[in-house]
Amino acid sequence: MPLLESPFAQLDLIRQPEQPNEPLQAFDAADEYLLNHLAEQQPAASTRVLVLNDSFGALAASLVGKVALTSSTDSFLAALALEKNLARNGLPFDAVTVIPASAPLLGPFDRVLIRVPKTLALLEEQLIRLQGKLAPGAQVVAAAMIKHLPRAAGELLERYVGPMQASLAVKKARLLIATPDGRPAVASPYPTRYRLDQPAIELLNHANVFCREGLDIGTRAFLPHLPSNLGQARVADLGCGNGVLAIASALNNPEAHYTLVDESFMAVQSAAQNWQAALAQREVTVRASDGLAGQEPQSLDVVLCNPPFHQQQVVGDFLAWRMFQQAREALVVGGALYIVGNRHLGYHSKLARLFRGVEQVAATPKFVILKARK
């Protein structure tokens, strides 16, 4: 893999989660462009720099020891990548203040470097949270590869920060440079809420939660077919999002024990709040993690999962396959993984390679609900 070279550092970087013969690198031309732009300004070691949405730590790792650095991300995997890449390059982890996107920022900041996220609601929420956190003379610079840069990103910068200028394209990357001009403070439209009829609950969704405006159609197909009569089973909602699968299951299984995991800090925050609203003080474990990577082997009886089919802009079944492997490891012998998936993804044959029995629980024209028994 090529090294990331910038005026600040030369780094050997890896992606998370790791996979053999990784075809993709852990940085791109937009990272390089941001670093070169900052270097031209010759920041002092005391310059307070905030990095947002640094996918695999390329920006933060480059700037360690060069500026006063804070990195904020909504991705547990991104935070893990930063930690691993710092260690890989012999850099001190405590030189970076890492803040989950679900937590408040502690300004003021002189420079803000943003990788434009796939979900523009996350960008909007982050820009709103910058209100009152920018030092005099601050600059906010957002970057993306042009093919992933929607016009709305520049509009959001102008609305919440100040006048914005788009740079020339370099290696198919572009910068959006905004100059703060003391815009009046705006209340955030997030979290959003929507109600379900069955079960009769209201779901709160922070800005980066998948399908925050309403229930996604895969989950809608899954809900009527969640397992019942689970007794005191230990159940995990893997990739829990706002927690709807676990909450619906828990309402029908009053004695079961639940663990909700997601790699999005905002998803975990939403799930915890939704569980408390629907199930009050009923005991639960909710955590941001790399799926079930931290789960004890053979410690679960049931895993519920609506697996993702992309990581940022990269589409594929790598993450789903990894989740299936994690579920198998965490389940007891005789335990079961229940999933919903698009018919065309062929999950039945993939699960059959890992589990001793796979059956179709239900189907719609678009989705299948499958049960895989260990």
From TrEMBL:
<comment type="function">
    <text>Specifically methylates the guanine in position 1835 (m2G1835) of 23S rRNA.</text>
</comment>
<keyword id="KW-0949">S-adenosyl-L-methionine</keyword>
<keyword id="KW-0808">Transferase</keyword>
<protein>
    <recommendedName>
        <fullName>Ribosomal RNA large subunit methyltransferase G</fullName>
        <ecNumber>2.1.1.174</ecNumber>
    </recommendedName>
</protein>
<keyword id="KW-0963">Cytoplasm</keyword>
<dbReference type="InterPro" id="IPR029063">
    <property type="entry name" value="SAM-dependent_MTases_sf"/>
</dbReference>
<dbReference type="Pfam" id="PF05175">
    <property type="entry name" value="MTS"/>
</dbReference>
<feature type="domain" description="Methyltransferase small">
    <location>
        <begin position="201"/>
        <end position="371"/>
    </location>
</feature>
<dbReference type="InterPro" id="IPR046977">
    <property type="entry name" value="RsmC/RlmG"/>
</dbReference>
<dbReference type="InterPro" id="IPR002052">
    <property type="entry name" value="DNA_methylase_N6_adenine_CS"/>
</dbReference>
<comment type="similarity">
    <text>Belongs to the methyltransferase superfamily. RlmG family.</text>
</comment>
<dbReference type="InterPro" id="IPR058679">
    <property type="entry name" value="RlmG_N"/>
</dbReference>
<dbReference type="GO" id="GO:0005737">
    <property type="term" value="C:cytoplasm"/>
</dbReference>
<keyword id="KW-0698">rRNA processing</keyword>
<dbReference type="InterPro" id="IPR017237">
    <property type="entry name" value="RLMG"/>
</dbReference>
<dbReference type="Pfam" id="PF26049">
    <property type="entry name" value="RLMG_N"/>
</dbReference>
<feature type="domain" description="RlmG N-terminal">
    <location>
        <begin position="2"/>
        <end position="181"/>
    </location>
</feature>
<dbReference type="GO" id="GO:0003676">
    <property type="term" value="F:nucleic acid binding"/>
</dbReference>
<dbReference type="GO" id="GO:0052916">
    <property type="term" value="F:23S rRNA (guanine(1835)-N(2))-methyltransferase activity"/>
</dbReference>
<dbReference type="InterPro" id="IPR007848">
    <property type="entry name" value="Small_mtfrase_dom"/>
</dbReference>
<keyword id="KW-0489">Methyltransferase</keyword>
